[in-house]
């Protein structure tokens, strides 16, 4: 039984099944982008082990293998097939190199999809930042602003807010009860008198604002406006009898007003913001340049001259980032991604990809394997020509 299973794992039939499944998945995922958008379709179809139905809530049933499962099975299939049929011989060196390159390419693609992180850094003229922001993920930042010299931040990831549960943390003298979470929303300011929806929050600016739930944004240039209603419950211990509600607060990506309250003799601030990735260095935008072709508004070139400061490594240097000339530093790559319409701010795309070198290595090995294989047959053919003549 085990031998038959290993034979099937290394078989060409499994390869064809995976390729057929990949074609069907690509077709279904491409069609789904019309209603779900690119990023949501990628997560449900290509960046998952299984495709589920229904996608969210209740009892879900797996209906098809996802991109990670198909890619992983293909990788195991290729390794098993190569190991089973491996025979060391000089005339098969090219085949071995080609297979090794394909294995590295598949593994590198899987690791990139699992561990690569893309974020953005918005910098106005003269701004200095030591963090980048995720364009799609949010976090609830609970900030202790008591000390004027430094803020203490506790960041709660978006996935915990989606569960609409109670959140506790050792750094917080209160619990956060998520009453409502909206993946996409629109805020409406309520008038003093009139009919209309009642506010969900009881404290802060959100007590005068109603929240309207919206479907997920699907356009390439669109993004969701996340909102949540959270209740702050102060507690001295884990006993509910000693808990005291400090009211419900509306936090939203579209709400610019500060949300502050006092608890345990300290001052706190709540804000829902894009998830941040902090760096051990800082970047300062010294100058942003945007050149256009004469007589048109067509961009010709845009670049950012930045100052890179890393006290830990005694680094202080100027760097010019422009199209196809990124900055690579400490495992992260900074690309010139865009700019604000007033040309007063630059947008840098920050990519952290631990396996970024894998595609280059794989292509070199595959090319070398093909050259060796074709070269071997070419030499053999040239040696046989005199005999044939």
Give a verbal description of the structure.
The protein is of the alpha+beta class and 389 residues long. It folds into 3 domains: 2-116 and 357-388, no CATH class; 119-128 and 278-352, no CATH class; 138-276, no CATH class. Helices cover 31% and strands 39% of the residues. It is built from 7 helices and 18 strands. The protein has helices spanning 2-9, 12-36, 38-46, 67-84, 93-115, 158-162, 358-388, and strands spanning 50-53, 61-65, 117-124, 128-144, 152-157, 166-167, 174-182, 185-189, 209-213, 227-235, 243-252, 259-263, 266-292, 299-310, 315-322, 327-329, 332-339, 345-352. Strands 4, 5, 12, 13, 14 and 15 form a 6-stranded antiparallel beta sheet that branches. Strands 3-18-17-16 form a 4-stranded antiparallel beta sheet, with no helix packed on it. It has a 4-stranded antiparallel beta sheet with strand order 6-7-10-11. Helix 2 (12-36) runs antiparallel to helix 3 and helix 5 (93-115) runs antiparallel to helix 7. The two termini are 54 Å apart. Residues 237-241 have low confidence and may be disordered.
Q: What's the SSE blueprint?
A:
Layout: H1 2-9, H2 12-36, H3 38-46, E1 50-53, E2 61-65, H4 67-84, H5 93-115, E3 117-124, E4 128-144, E5 152-157, H6 158-162, E6 166-167, E7 174-182, E8 185-189, E9 209-213, E10 227-235, E11 243-252, E12 259-263, E13 266-292, E14 299-310, E15 315-322, E16 327-329, E17 332-339, E18 345-352, H7 358-388
Antiparallel strand pairs: 1-2, 3-18, 4-5, 4-13, 6-7, 7-10, 8-9, 10-11, 12-13, 13-14, 14-15, 16-17, 17-18
């Amino acid at each position: 039984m085990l031998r038959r299973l290993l034979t099937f794992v290394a078989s060409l039939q499994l390869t064809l099944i995976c390729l057929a499944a990949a074609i069907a998945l690509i077709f279904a995922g491409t069609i789904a982008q019309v209603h779900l958008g690119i990023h949501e379709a990628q997560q449900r179809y290509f960046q998952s082990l299984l495709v589920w139905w229904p996608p969210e809530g209740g009892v879900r049933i797996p209906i098809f293998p996802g991109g990670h499962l198909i890619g992983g099975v293909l990788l195991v299939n290729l390794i098993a097939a190569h190991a089973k049929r491996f025979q060391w011989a000089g005339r098969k060196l090219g085949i071995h190199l080609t297979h090794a390159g394909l294995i590295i390419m598949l593994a590198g693609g899987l690791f990139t999809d699992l561990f690569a992180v893309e974020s953005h850094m918005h910098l106005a003229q003269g701004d200095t930042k030591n963090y980048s922001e995720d364009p799609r993920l949010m976090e609830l930042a609970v900030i202790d602003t008591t000390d004027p010299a430094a803020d203490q931040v506790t960041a709660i990831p978006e996935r915990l807010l989606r569960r609409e549960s109670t959140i506790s943390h050792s750094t917080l003298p209160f619990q956060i009860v998520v009453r409502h979470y909206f993946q996409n929303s629109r805020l409406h300011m309520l008038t003093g008198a009139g009919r209309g929806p009642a506010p969900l929050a009881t404290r802060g600016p959100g007590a005068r604002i109603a929240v309207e739930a919206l479907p997920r944004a699907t356009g390439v240039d669109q993004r969701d406006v996340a909102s949540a209603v959270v209740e702050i419950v102060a507690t001295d211990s884990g006993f509910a009898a000693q808990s005291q509600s400090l009211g419900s607060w509306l936090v939203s990506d579209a709400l610019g007003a500060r949300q502050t309250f006092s608890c345990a003799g300290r001052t706190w601030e709540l804000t829902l913001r894009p998830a941040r990735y902090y760096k051990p260095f800082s970047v300062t935008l010294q100058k942003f340049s945007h050149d256009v072709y004469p007589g048109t508004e067509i961009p010709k070139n845009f670049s950012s001259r930045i100052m890179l400061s890393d006290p830990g490594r005694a680094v202080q240097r100027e760097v010019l980032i422009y199209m196809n000339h990124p900055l690579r530093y400490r495992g992260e790559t900074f690309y010139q991604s865009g700019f604000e319409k007033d040309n007063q701010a630059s947008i840098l795309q920050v990519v952290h990809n631990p396996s970024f070198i894998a595609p280059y290595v794989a292509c070199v090995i595959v090319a070398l394997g093909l050259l060796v294989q074709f070269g071997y047959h070419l030499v053999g053919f040239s040696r046989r020509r005199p005999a044939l003549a």
